[in-house]
């Protein structure tokens, strides 16, 4: 009997504390931010690059709020923006003096592939944002098609710079840039795939 009443008074104190102390809303906020972050972690873990994924999207956790749709859209925008800046760096690199013929040719190919990739991700983003007309499944299939075409182009660029004939600093720079783009596109594609599959 004593035990029950003491635990009763403990809960009473807890309840009073819950309703009177201001940190309560802060605690609730903390709890929901943990849930939002856990959601990002779970989705990132099912991609091929969980660490890069989490590093990229955890800062958007509060905005994404556990919504697969917002995460999928955000991931496409991140891929799009990274592709845009890759395109800028490649164009800058291309103007560098003293490029070997072979490097210049591989770089030229990459500039074209990355430009195609940018257009494809843009189409993917546009499909994602469509609301009327097509069914969800049909629209998502277009989103997937364009994102996967973009990834193919990025991999083609990467392959051109994997050959041993192309060597040195330019190769390292291009590989670093294209790898990031390709990994972020791959992450976006797996998020989109999972989102599309979950809704079907
Ligand atoms: C992508 O770039 C646009 C334009 O610069 C910017 O408004 C947007 O916030 C960026 N999105 C992400 C997810 O980086």
From TrEMBL:
Signal peptide: 1-26
Cellular location(s): Secreted, Extracellular space, Apoplast
Domain Pectinesterase inhibitor as annotated: residue spans: 35-191
GO terms for cellular component: apoplast
SMART domains listed in its UniProt record: PMEI (SM00856)
Chief location category: secreted
Example of a GO MF term: enzyme inhibitor activity
Keywords: Apoplast, Disulfide bond, Secreted, Signal
A Pfam family reported for this protein in Swiss-Prot or TrEMBL: PMEI
Family statement drawn from the similarity comment of this UniProt entry: Belongs to the PMEI family.
PANTHER family in the cross-refs: 21 KDA PROTEIN-LIKE, PECTINESTERASE INHIBITOR-LIKE
Protein name (Swiss-Prot/TrEMBL): Plant invertase/pectin methylesterase inhibitor superfamily protein
Record organism: Hibiscus syriacus
């Amino acid at each position: 009997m004593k035990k029950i009443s003491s635990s009763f008074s403990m809960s009473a104190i807890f309840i009073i504390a819950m309703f009177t102390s201001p940190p309560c809303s802060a605690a609730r906020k903390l709890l929901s931010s943990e849930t939002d972050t856990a959601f990002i972690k779970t989705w990132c873990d099912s991609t091929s690059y969980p660490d890069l994924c989490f590093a990229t999207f955890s800062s958007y956790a509060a905005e994404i709020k556990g919504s697969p749709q917002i995460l999928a859209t955000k991931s496409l925008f991140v891929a799009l923006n990274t592709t845009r800046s890759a395109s800028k760096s490649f164009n800058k690199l291309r103007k560098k003096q003293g490029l070997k013929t072979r490097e210049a040719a591989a770089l030229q190919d990459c500039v074209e592939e990355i430009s195609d990739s940018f257009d494809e991700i843009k189409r993917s983003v546009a499909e994602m944002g469509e609301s009327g007309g097509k069914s969800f499944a049909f629209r998502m299939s277009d989103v997937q098609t364009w994102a996967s075409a973009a990834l193919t182009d990025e991999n083609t660029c990467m392959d051109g710079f994997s050959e041993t004939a192309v060597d040195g600093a330019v190769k390292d720079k291009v590989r670093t840039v294209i790898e990031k783009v390709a990994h972020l596109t791959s992450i976006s594609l797996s998020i989109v795939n999972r989102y599309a599959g979950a809704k079907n």
